[in-house]
Amino acid sequence: MREFIFRLFGRGRRPPDSDGDARTEGGVGADGQARTDGGTVTKEQTVGRSRVQEALDSDLVGSLPFWLPPALLIGLFVYGAIGWNVLISLTDWSGLGQPDYDSLSFAMYEEMLSDPTFWTATQNTFVLLIVFTAVTLLLGLLLAILVDQKIRFENTFRTIYLLPMSLSFVVTAIFWSWMYNPEIGLINVGLRSLGLDFLAYAWLSDPRFSLGAVIFALMWQFSGYCMVVYLAGLRAIPTEQYEAARTDGASTLRMYRRVIIPQLRASTTSAAVVLMVFALKAFDFLFVLFGPTPGPSTDILSVMMFREAFRATNWAYGSAIATVLFVMALGVIGPYLYLQYSRGDL
Amino acid sequence: MSSQTANDSTSGIDFQRIGLYAVLAVMAAFYLSPLESGLMTAFKSQEAFIGSTPFVPPPPSGFTVEPWFEAWSRLQLGVFNSLLLAIPATALSAVFGSLAAYGLTNVNWRGQVAVIVLFVAGIFVPYQSVLVPLTQFWTMVGLDEILAAVPMLAERSGLIELIITHTAYGIPICTILFRSYYATIDPEMLEAARLDGATVARIYWKIILPLSVPIFAVTLIYQFTQIWNDLLFALVLLTSPGNQVVTLSLNQLQGSMVQQYNLQMAGAFVAALPTLVVYVLFGEQFAEGVAGET
């Protein structure tokens, strides 16, 4: 691999102890032993190639073979595809056949704005985004504070809380469809055994509760992640601050509210960004539970996009919804990245 | 944090600590309950899981391992294909991530930040915003025709497309994981190597790479879980049933066996087993990977 990169970019010096092949450099002589620190090269040669050598020695060029191939892959598959998606959304491509890039218009976006399904899905997406992010952050913070009390078996508890995060959404959706089963699922069996029969609803099929039930299950899956982020934040706070608050006679609750939690702002921001972006693209979990046509109570934009493009073959329309999703994601990560950049964290 | 203990432990029983552990235990039960009730259900016969409480172990009369065999026979192709997908895709994105992180962290040049921004933003791009062009792209490439000369690969073209796609989408997070680790490497050490005449490539090969073992573990574990668990890309890119990955098979099992919860639960465990094993063995590294996303 190394030799390959050396040869490909005519960059590396031959290791002094190896007698590998001499590579040429910018067509200047066949002797690859160009060593700026002297070596075997004669004076004329050094002068003749010094500028080429200088350019090649600059760190930008030296680092190119490392970051350029992955950057090109991202450029093609991520950013190129995003641009292409916008282009497709301006056509009227649907069904079989190929998109016609000659007549571009915003027709799909107009159609979208007058589509009631789009507004229902947008509303659900926002509810999911806000409620899911809020409750998950809160539970994650609570868990982190509990785990941070110098407890025994800390590793075991942490491992258990984070466990759902390692599972596929397909798997967790199947677990929760069983949990929520109205007759024999754990939730309703539990409620009935507590004498709360009147609360035993059909959680997933009742339009009043289905989105809430989804949010609860997703909170179960993601709160461990928030705990990990908050725990790192808590551990970064110097112990003196806890002690100072103690000597001031602050109660535990007050200490957390006034001293500790305000310092977790960075953890909150970054965890919230991840959760919100997830809420925007949440697909697998809802798709497994409700299929491509979930009905108005649990339809979200990412599922609607899939349905329009890959079930109804309204490719351009699906792309238009996808563009909206991308812009929403940009609205979340744009400020975040700017914040990171201005803090010098990038 | 728990300076309370010092004061309270003098007064004998520490009620606050007991309360704390009680809450921790209740939360642990909350996180484990779907898995526990699923596991119990997977060992019950149809009559048993309808008639008994979900989290109670199966009665002797209602105990069966039949669902596990049934689930395995329906999912084994998916498990095999998922391994075929996840292992190369994980390795590739980790290697690319390591290379990119080195080029963007330990080697300094102007304009670096702009490239880094594109990498970081790439973590958060919703898959939906590239799905249509992605299918269009792979149709235009026609990988199965390119590989037609090698039937073994041509049959697998859908999986190969998926490997390349997952590699591309895995690079951003892998790069960021490696970057935060590489940023802690002492720049003086690298500067010394450079003064000794080592090239950028040689420094990577001789210094950075040997130091990267722990972060490679974190990245491989995290990325393997991500790729193994993904449904959406597979749903859109895989057309041949022979290439079906495990998340697809499991979703189909769920759709076709609606009321057979014992079979569904067994299937869910079969599909989750590799990630569960990885998680139990390397939970610490997984947590590190998860935290790296921020």
Short characterization:
The complex is a heterodimer of chains A (346) and B (294). With 346 residues, chain A is an all-alpha fold. Chain A contains 15 helices and no strands.
Topology:
The complex is a heterodimer of chains A (346) and B (294).
Chain A: H1 2-9, H2 43-57, H3 59-89, H4 107-113, H5 116-147, H6 154-162, H7 169-179, H8 186-193, H9 210-235, H10 239-247, H11 252-260, H12 265-281, H13 284-290, H14 301-311, H15 315-342
Chain B: H1 4-8, H2 15-42, H3 46-51, H4 66-105, H5 112-124, H6 128-141, H7 143-146, H8 151-155, H9 157-182, H10 187-195, H11 200-211, H12 213-229, H13 232-237, H14 246-256, H15 261-292
Could you tell me the number of beta strands of chain A? Answer: 0
User: How would you characterize the largest beta sheet of chain A?
Assistant: none
User: Which blocks of ≥5 consecutive residues of chain B have pLDDT under 50?
Assistant: 1-10
Using only C-alpha atoms, the radius of gyration of chain A works out to 29 Å
Question: How would you sum up this structure, described in words?
Answer:
The complex is a heterodimer of chains A (346) and B (294). In chain A, helix 5 packs antiparallel against helix 12, helix 10 packs across helix 11 and helix 14 runs antiparallel to helix 15. Chain A is mostly helical and 346 residues long. Chain A is 66% helix and 0% strand. Chain A is globular, with a radius of gyration of 29 Å. Helices cover 78% and strands 0% of the residues of chain B. The model of chain B is unreliable at 1-10 (pLDDT under 50). Classes of the chains: A mainly alpha (346), B mainly alpha (294). At the A-B interface, helix 1, helix 3, helix 5, helix 6 and helix 7 of A face helix 2, helix 4, helix 5, helix 6 and helix 9 of B.
List the defining traits of the structure above:
heterodimer; A: 346 residues; mainly alpha; 66% helix; globular; disordered N terminus; B: 294 residues; flat
